[in-house]
Amino acid sequence: MTPFSRTGAGRGSLATLICGALAAGGLAAAGVTALEPEAASASSHREAPLISGTPQYDNTDVYAFVSPDKPDTTTIIANWIPFEEPAGGPNFFTFAEDAQYDLHIDNDGDAQDDLLFRYTFATHVRNDKTFLYNTGPVTSLDDPDLNVTQTYDVELLRLEGRHPVSRTKIADDVPVAPSNVGKASMPDYGTLRKQAIHRLAGGATTFAGQADDPFFLDLRVFDLLYGGNLSEVGNDTLKGYNVNSIALQVPHHLLTESADQPVVGIWSTTRRKNARGHFTQVSRLGNPLVNEVVNPQRDKDRFNASAPRDDARFLENVTHPELPKLIEAIYRIEAPAEPRDDLVDVFLKGVEGLNRPPGVTPSEQLRLNTSVKPAAEPKRLGVLDGDNAGFPNGRRLTDDVIDASLQVVEGELLGAKNDLGDAVDANDKEFGRSFPYLADPTEGSRGPLAGGVDGGDDVRNQLGDALRPAGAPGSGDTGLIALSAGAGAGGILLIGSGLMWWRRMRNRAY
Question: Which residues 6+ apart lie within 8 Å of 194 measured at CB?
Fold first, then answer.
């Protein structure tokens, strides 16, 4: 068994580990520290001034849904590093080693996390004497040609009153799926993806690695709301870009407070180690678009450093949102009357009778009722279209959160029926039918072939043919030979001119 094919056998069942972590009593391990975020001068795609400069720590989206092929489990997906250009080497995209990537679970509605899954990463370089990410075609995660690799650990922490009371490691040295360099480097990326899916005892599964960015939308909304005349809609701005993803699938009963209280609140954060060696929260994300288009500039960095229990300070941004006023100014669509208690009810408390926990403390979380079965035919607008298994009851990969959120912001729940949207209704790539459900990342070698290549030949063969001596069998193209000879002669002239200049310079007085 290689280090990259662990199954978790011999470590005890995940259920036993988690039950141990949840048991009342003292700490399960020495050195457990408090988790409350320190004051920070610091998600979504580039949504706040400070985090936009440090993409490794920038959480772009969170998804949570009842697993369609395993309806007794919840799948949580959180993404980082926006706008990954697939060909952006030689230093491709890695998780930060000085960060804690956290998935938070509030299972009693009090705006404080009760469970926390913490992912930490380590980077390994086989040969530091080359600039290459891979030194040959990579066929497996333990292939020696994969020069830069990452592994990660997962810890489960139980918290009471914002302080951890137990800590249990539930995964150790799990391999990360690499960046998809291209067809020549990774001829079968799907195999690498499958090898990065790590099954834990007790019914849980984890994955970390690169994926196609599943968020679909037209980001030209920031050009005066689609050009000021809706001339800029219908283009999936994130098409072709990748993200780094963490995915975790866990049986419901290990997340929920009880069978009678199946609603959980979910959000993610990134904590970065500062110069003093302490971890500081620098990114936070639950529902989509909150820090992008709800919070004003003065609050964006504060929100990223805050916790749901403190969300009362941002309440006015929800009850008196700016976006409807902008839409009214530009498109003459009347903004709903304020205060917007309908937005508070849906996004800060949960939909009554669906995903609102009893005695809920209003706070910004992605709330999921784990007892709602997956829809046989999901509808992209989720609850707005009668599909209670979709957004804002959690968030599936296929949910069109832009259109749904825009319609609600414009008063759909107040009787102002509308069909507003950005004309991007689905992702450009089809999602998978099993965990981790994400589409494979776009490869770095995408795009048109080199000139003169028809797919059956490649540039190397053409170059070899062109460089054969004149009159040699198979030689019919002397143009490149003449060009090469001319270039060589030009090079000799340049070298000669350089030597003459150097000699003159030696005779100068300085």
Answer: none
